[in-house]
Amino acid sequence: MTSFWDNLPQPFFILAPMEAVTDVVFRHVVKKAAAPDVFFTEFSNATGWVYAGDRAIAGRLVKTDDEHPLVVQIWGGEPGDMEQFAAHCAKLGFDGIDINMGCPAKSAIKSGGAALIRQPDVAVAAITAAKTAGLPVSVKTRLGYTYVDEWREWLGTLLAQDLANLTIHLRTKKEMSKVPAHYELIDNIIKLRDEIAPQTLLTINGDIRNRVHGEELFAAHPGLNGIMIGRGVFSDPFCFRASRVVPQKKFGQLYVGPEFFSDGTRETNRKSAPTEETKIPVVDHKQELIKLLNYHLDLFDRYQPTLDRPFETLKRFFKIYIRDFDGAKELREQLMNTKNTDEVRQLINSN
């Protein structure tokens, strides 16, 4: 099956699926800042939807027509439920289906997520079931459940399923995010992919800061296809930009991000873009972050009747925007005491 995966630039960049983060609101914020090549939704439970309908997935499938390609991430261990839910997602117009086989959360491993690493037969059945929907199926997983050396047998099983894309978070379930990602295994994983399923695209995830860092990894590991960024977007909402210099404290270095044409549109054809990096100086990083936060607030208000998410859930995002400028800590503390978006706007626009 040919799909959007076959027409992506190399390397392609993906916004990682993050629970209670990558909803329709935040995806549009990232798109405004600097769009990745592929968006993923939050993950939704197939069995929950089969038995309780849309109320079980709490707005996780809400999307708009300007989010392409958009992959819906689903999870579960019952193949019949996966088949029904995948068919539903196809009817909603998603571009692909990704199966979560790596989430380490206790709620997920009861019937899916990283638990499938220990249940390869169930994992294979889930993939087969999802494929009946007619959309390209991909998988996001980890190296293993407990030990790093589980990777070869586990990834080999997945690669034998003719996936469109395999994303590997380069840690085990047990390691969570407490140790550095195992970049030393990338070349061996590429070799395994080439032996078993050269047609399957290979994406890595874990500790990737921004587009420049991802491109460095791509150049260092021939055969790699994609880069997925998750937590990096919390340190830099502009992390998918290709050639921008902004001070970044957390990683102790400069980060870069996108070229724009003179009319303000984004450079998207990186295959024909100049190889020499053009660094665009930041005139006022604070104001750029505040502007993006205002956009986030507007979207939150717009989608609140549909998503029905409490205002308190918005507060986890403040640290993305209120950072790296004088007085940021104090302002962030004040924002944590606000009770609605109007109070947030009043505070940030008066500072």
Description:
The structure is a single chain. By secondary structure, the chain is an alpha/beta fold. The protein folds into 2 domains: 4-235, TIM Barrel (Alpha-Beta Barrel), CATH 3.20.20; 285-349. The chain has helices at 24-34, 46-52, 79-92, 120-131, 151-159, 186-196, 211-220, 232-235, 285-307, 318-321, 328-335, 341-349; strands spanning 12-15, 38-45, 70-75, 96-101, 137-142, 165-169, 201-205, 226-229, 244-248, 253-255, 280-281. The longest helix has 23 residues, at 285-307. The chain is globular and about 60 Å long.
CATH class descriptor of the largest domain: Alpha Beta
Q: Helix and strand succession?
A: EHEHEHEHEHEHEHEHEEEHHHH
Question: Separation of termini?
Answer: 53 Å
Number of domains: 2
Low-confidence stretches: 245-283
Q: State the CATH architecture of the largest domain.
A: Alpha-Beta Barrel
Beta percentage is 15-25%
The CATH homologous superfamily of the largest domain corresponds to Aldolase class I
Number of strands: 11
Radius of gyration, Cα only, in angstroms?
Answer: 20 Å
**Main sheet: strands, sense, barrel:** 8 strands, parallel, barrel
In CATH, the topology of the largest domain is named: TIM Barrel
The order of strands across the largest sheet is 1-2-3-4-5-6-7-8
Q: Helicity range of the residues?
A: 25-40%
| Structural class assignment | alpha/beta
User: What overall form do the CA principal axes indicate?
Assistant: globular
- Count the helices. How many? 12
